[in-house]
C-alpha cells in the first residue's frame, strides 16, 4: 500500500454506523497538523542572517520536512485527554527538536556515517562535523527552553515540571541514548550472539522511549489521569517498536530514492535487524501484532477522539518510507 | 601564586575589623562544598555494572574530579539570596553535567581533538567517538531531568520552570553552543581578521553564558529578587570572561602536566586568544579589571554572605591550572 493510499484512507469509527457515520480523514488531519507544527518550528528559531551559523544549521535540519509523526502524536495525546493543540505545541516542537538532534548525531561519520537525510545532504556534510555536533547539542537545549513556554498558557507549573522530567528521561541514559549505545555495541556481533531480547532492548530505548515520552508529555500537559497516561505509554511503546520493525524491513526492501536516505545501511554496518533475526515474513507478522496491541491499548478512550492515534498506528505499520 | 596558596588564604571581610573579626576560609569552604557535590553527583547516576556502557561513560567523565567551580557558584548564589545548599544541589549537579557534556564534545577529534582531560584519557579515547557523543547527549538530558527533583523540596514550581528556561538558554544557540561555533569559525583567521569584539563574543557565549546561567539558576531557586539576580548575572559575566582570559594565559605559559590537559593546543589550532591579541601583560591587566568589576557587582549584598563569591572571583583570577 502506498503512503498516499494510507494517508487518504478514510477511517470509519466503531459505534457510529448510522446515517451520520463520521469518518476520520487522516490525510487532511496530518496535513493540517504538519502546517501548524512547521509554523511553530519556524517561529522557534528566528533566523538572524548567514553570519549566525548555528541558527542556520539548526533550521537546516529542523525545517527539512519529515512526517512530524512525533509532534502530531504529542498533540493527539494531549487532545485525547481534554487538552488543546496550543497547549501541546511547545512540547510537540521540543520533541521534534530532540528527534532532529538524534538524527544529526546519528548521521555523523563516527556513528552511522550517513550522507543523506530526508533527501538532502546530512548536517555534517553541509556544516562540518564539529558544527553538526554542536547543532545537535543546541537543539537539545532549545527543546527544554521551548517546552517551558507552555507555562504562560495557564498550564499548572507542576504539570510543566512533570512533563520536562518525563521528556528528559526519554532522551538520556534510560532512553534514546542508552538504546543507541546498545545498538553500537551490538555492531559486528553475529545473529547467534544477539537474541530477540537484546534487539528489543535496543529498539525499546532507541526508538520507543521517545515515542513514549512524546505521548506521555502530551497527556500530562493536557491534564490526563495516571491511568490515561499509562495506557498512552503502552500504546506508544508498541508503535515505537512497530516503527523500528517497519524501518528495518524498509531498509532491506527499498531504494535510497524511495527512502530519502541511504538504503541498505544496516546490512553494510552489519547491524542486527528484525529481518535478519526472524526473516521478512515473520517481521511483517510481528509488525501487525504490535499494531494490534497498540490499538488495544486505546480501549476505553472515546473512539472519535482516539481516531488520530488509531490512524497513526496504521500509518506507521504500513508506511513505505 | 600557587593554587594551594590561593585556596588556603583566609579572606578578611570588610566591615568586620573588630575583636570578633570573622574570616572566610576559602579552602575549607571549597573542600566541604566539593565533597557534598561529588556525593550528589555520584548518587545521580547509580552504576548498574560494566554491561551498562553509557552509565559507565557518564560516570567516568562526571566523577573525574575538577574544581566544581560552577556547582559551587550555583550553591553560593542560592545561599546568598536566602536559599540553602540542599535547594541548590540538583541544579548545581545539572550544571556540572552540562559542563562535562561540553568538555566531552569539545575533546572530540572533530572539535579540539584533545586526548587528555583532567589528567586522564578523554572520553572518546576510552569509549570511542560514538559513545562519547552519546554520553554528552545523555548528560545534557540528565541535567534537565535532575534539576526537576528540586520541586519535591518545597520550591515553588514556577521557580523551577524559570530556572530550567534560564539554564537551557545558557547552553544553546544563545549561549555555550553559539560561542563554540563562533570559536570554530574563527580558527585559521589571522589576528587582523578578528578583533576584541569578536573574541569577547566567543567567550561571553562559550564560557560566561554557563557561569551566568549557573548563578542565575541558584538565585532563582533561592528566591532572589530580579535586582539580585541581575547583579549576580553581571558578576558571573565578568568571572566567566575572566576564567577564559586566565585559561588563554595558562595555555601558553603552563605544561600539560601542570594543566592536566594538553597544553599549547590553542597555538597548534591557530586559535585567536587574548595573549595573541593583546600580549600576556595586557591580558593579565585585563584579567584584574574583570575581577574588580565582578567584585563591584556584588556591592549591596551582605559581605559575609557574599564572601564565597568574592573568593571564587579571586581564585579564578589567580588559578594556576
Automatic annotation (TrEMBL), chains A, B:
Keyword terms: Carotenoid biosynthesis, Isoprene biosynthesis, Magnesium, Metal-binding, Transferase
Gene Ontology biological process terms in this record: carotenoid biosynthetic process
GO CC terms of this entry: cytoplasm
Pfam families attached to this UniProt entry: polyprenyl_synt (PF00348)
Family annotation (CDD domains): Trans_IPPS_HT
Signal peptide: none
Cofactor(s) demanded: Mg(2+)
Pathway annotation from the record: Isoprenoid biosynthesis; farnesyl diphosphate biosynthesis; farnesyl diphosphate from geranyl diphosphate and isopentenyl diphosphate: step 1/1; Isoprenoid biosynthesis; geranyl diphosphate biosynthesis; geranyl diphosphate from dimethylallyl diphosphate and isopentenyl diphosphate: step 1/1; Isoprenoid biosynthesis; geranylgeranyl diphosphate biosynthesis; geranylgeranyl diphosphate from farnesyl diphosphate and isopentenyl diphosphate: step 1/1
Superkingdom of source: Eukaryota
Any GO molecular function: metal ion binding
Family: Belongs to the FPP/GGPP synthase family.
Stated name of the protein: Geranylgeranyl pyrophosphate synthase
Species of provenance: Lithocarpus litseifolius
Amino acid at each position: 500500500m502506498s503512503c498516499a493510499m494510507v494517508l487518504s484512507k478514510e477511517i470509519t469509527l466503531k459505534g457510529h454506523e448510522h446515517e451520520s457515520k463520521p469518518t476520520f480523514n487522516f490525510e487532511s488531519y496530518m496535513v493540517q497538523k504538519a502546517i501548524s507544527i512547521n509554523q511553530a518550528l519556524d517561529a522557534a528559531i528566528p533566523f538572524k542572517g548567514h553570519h549566525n551559523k548555528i541558527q542556520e544549521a539548526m533550521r537546516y535540519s529542523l525545517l527539512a520536512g519529515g512526517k512530524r509523526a512525533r509532534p502530531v502524536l504529542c498533540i493527539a495525546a494531549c487532545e485525547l485527554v481534554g487538552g488543546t493543540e496550543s497547549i501541546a505545541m511547545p512540547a510537540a516542537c521540543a520533541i521534534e527538536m530532540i528527534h532532529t538532534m538524534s538524527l544529526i548525531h546519528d548521521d555523523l561519520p563516527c556513528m552511522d556515517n550517513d550522507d543523506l537525510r530526508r533527501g538532502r545532504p546530512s548536517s555534517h556534510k553541509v556544516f562540518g562535523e564539529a558544527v553538526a555536533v554542536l547543532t545537535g547539542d543546541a537543539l537539545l537545549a532549545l527543546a527544554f527552553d521551548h517546552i517551558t513556554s507552555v507555562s504562560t498558557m495557564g498550564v499548572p507549573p507542576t504539570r510543566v515540571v512533570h512533563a520536562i522530567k518525563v521528556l528528559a528521561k526519554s532522551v538520556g541514559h534510560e532512553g534514546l541514548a542508552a538504546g543507541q549505545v546498545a545498538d553500537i555495541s551490538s555492531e559486528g556481533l553475529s545473529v547467534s550472539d544477539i537474541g530477540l531480547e537484546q534487539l528489543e532492548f535496543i529498539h525499546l530505548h532507541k526508538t520507543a522511549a521517545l515515542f513514549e515520552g512524546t505521548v506521555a508529555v502530551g497527556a500530562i500537559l493536557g491534564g490526563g489521569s495516571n491511568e490515561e497516561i499509562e495506557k498512552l505509554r503502552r500504546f506508544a511503546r508498541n508503535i515505537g517498536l512497530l516503527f523500528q520493525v517497519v524501518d528495518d524491513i524498509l531498509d532491506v526492501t527499498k531504494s535510497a530514492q524511495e527512502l530519502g536516505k541511504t538504503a541498505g545501511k544496516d546490512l553494510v554496518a552489519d547491524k542486527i535487524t528484525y529481518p535478519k533475526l526472524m526473516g521478512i515474513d515473520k517481521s511483517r507478522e510481528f509488525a501487525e501484532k504490535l499494531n494490534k496491541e497498540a490499538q488495544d491499548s486505546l480501549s476505553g478512550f472515546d473512539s472519535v477522539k482516539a481516531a488520530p492515534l488509531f490512524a497513526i498506528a496504521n500509518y506507521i505499520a504500513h508506511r513505505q518510507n
